[in-house]
Amino acid sequence: MLKVALIGFYDLRENTWETVGKLSKWGYKAIEHGAFLLRGNVEENLKKLAEYDMKVLSISSDLDGFKNNIDDIISKAKLIGVKYVICFWSDPRDYGQAVEIAETFNKAGETLRREGLTLCYHNHDHEFRKTFNGVKYFDLLMSLTSPENVALNLDIGWVTVGGENAVGLVRRLDKRIKLMHFKDFYDLDNRNSFTALGTGKVDIQSLLAEADKIGVEYITVEQDVLRNLNGDDTVLLSYLTLKESGLVE
C-alpha cells in the first residue's frame, strides 16, 4: 500500500504543529521537505512530529550545494533523520554543461550513498523538451549518471506535460524511482493549468497502479498554484482521490 506525503501548500514556519496535526488527521503520513525541523530544538521537533505519527522524507539542495557544500547537506539530513536528498532543478545551456551537471550528481550521489543517503533528482517538463545532440536532456542525464548514485523523485505531472508517456517511463525507470510527485493539469498544453488530483488530464489512476507495482513507498501531493479551491480543500480532495483507488493507506 502507498503512503501519501505533501509538499508545498503551507508555510510550515508558521502554525507548524496545527498544520501537521491537520494533515495527519486527514490521512497524510509524511511531509517531503523537512527543513522546518531545523528551526529551534531539533530533538523536540522530532518528538513532536512523532506524536502526530508523521515523518519527513527529505531535504533539498541546489547544484552549488551538491558541488561545494556536501558535508553540510549530510549533517542536516542526519540531524533530522531523512534518507533522501533532492535536487529540484537543473537546466543546462548546452551539452557540455549537461555533462558537468551529471558529473556533479554522480560525485555527490556517491558521497551521499556512502553515508547511507540517496540523491534523488526531481524533474520538471523542460528535461523532456530540451535536447542535446538529438537526445532529450532527461535521457542524457539518466545515461550519464549511475543508478546507484542518482535516483529519482519523479514528477508524473511534469512528465505528462513534457509530452512523455508517464506510465511507460515509470515502467522503464522502475526501481530507480524512489519517490513520486503526483500533480494534475486540466490542459496538457498549458504548463500553468494546475488542478487538484483527479480533476485534470493526467492519468492518475494508472500511475498509482504503476507506483504500487514498482514498490514506491511514498507518493507526494503537489500543486504549484491553486485553481478554484482553497488550500485545505485542495489538499483534502487530492488525498481522497488517491485513497479511493484502494491503493493508498
Q: What percent of residues adopt helix (DSSP H or I)?
A: 40-55%
Elements, N to C (H/E): EHEHEHHEHEHEEHEHHEEEHEH
Radius of gyration: 18 Å
**Strand tally, please?**
12
Lateral arrangement of strands in the main beta sheet: 1-2-3-4-5-8-9-12
Q: Which regions are unreliable across 5 or more consecutive residues at pLDDT < 50?
A: none
Number of domains: 1
What about the largest sheet?
8 strands, parallel, barrel
Beta-strand fraction estimate: 15-25%
- CATH A-level architecture: Alpha-Beta Barrel
Structural class: alpha/beta
CATH topology: TIM Barrel
Q: Identify the overall geometry.
A: globular
Task: Say which CATH homologous superfamily is assigned.
Answer: Divalent-metal-dependent TIM barrel enzymes
